Amino acid sequence: MSSEYSPEWRNSQILNHPIFMQNLLGCLWTGPVQQLYQQVSRCMILRQSAYLEESTGKGKSIAMEFAVERLSQVAGELPCVSFKAQKNDDPSGRGFYKGLLTSVHHNKIDGETSNLQLRAKRRVEELGVNSPSGTVILWVDEAQELNVADFLFLRDLQNGLRGVHADLLVFMTGEKPFLHRRIEEAKWSASPAVIDRFAMKRLSLGGYGLDEVRELFGLIDTAVWPAASGITWTQFFFPKAFEAGFRLHTQAIACTGALESAKLLSRDGYCQARLLKMVVQRFMLDQARHDNAEFVATPDAWRDAVSDAMGANTDEADDTEDDGKGGRSGR
Fold first, then answer.
1. What is the pTM of this model?
2. What is the pLDDT of residues 90-115, one digit of tens each?
3. Can you list the domains of the chain with their CATH numbers?
4. How far apart are CA 272 and CA 208, in angstroms?
5. Where is the stretch described as Disordered (predicted)?
């Protein structure tokens, strides 16, 4: 490694490394994310709205963000509107409309509810008219915060776009079991059409078993940062060991074994995304100081990383219900 990428340089850049980022910069195109994207892409072609309801820690929000981002790139000039439903930001009940207006870059978010609704409707219709495919994607995160009136507004918004010969596809992500309860509430309190339009299709997001962990670790071995450096993520933390042949993908069994010993895998042997990321972050950070040409990761290294991650992730420690391939029920 050239002096340009010396140990001093790595120490100065470690805070900026993608592996510690909590946004798309810190994500890799793994199997579970790819499978979710394929589902979303199919819904796009069929003009079908859908929802993703998963337990805390599953990684649903970041996975959907990744999928919607990729869809907008592949489809080309596809309007994708994303916002998070947060009721406690506006006790007046107008937070949904203000959030939507902000997401579509409208500069006026004050006024009465009816005025906010009209502005949002006109702006989204404008996006639909100007969309080459005649389609607008609306992704609502934390959708368990929606109320009946919000669902009815989405129905009216969809009707408005149909009036200008465009389609509104709504993708919702929310916490299990609260999103389903909201959908049922809207169904019985307002109209069964809420289900028909927005919740006939439930998306799924897989967890991380041994194969998925091995694939993820292989991606870490080959992902490069900084882009022009040629330095892989693994190499950044273990330059000497990497030069001597060390690769993170060989640690997949040791990692999943430590998770299993801590009883953090589902009955099918799957781990949740957030916990796995926290474990890998701690392993890389703590073991980097042992980097040398003869570096060998001990079983204790992974057990310590799991233990430390559990101390910072109390949701995982408290939730014990198994939800299949997603690991323990707990974003």
1. 0.88
2. 655 688 888 899 999 998 988 898 99
3. 3-26+208-326 (no CATH), 31-198 (3.40.50.300)
4. 6
5. 311-331
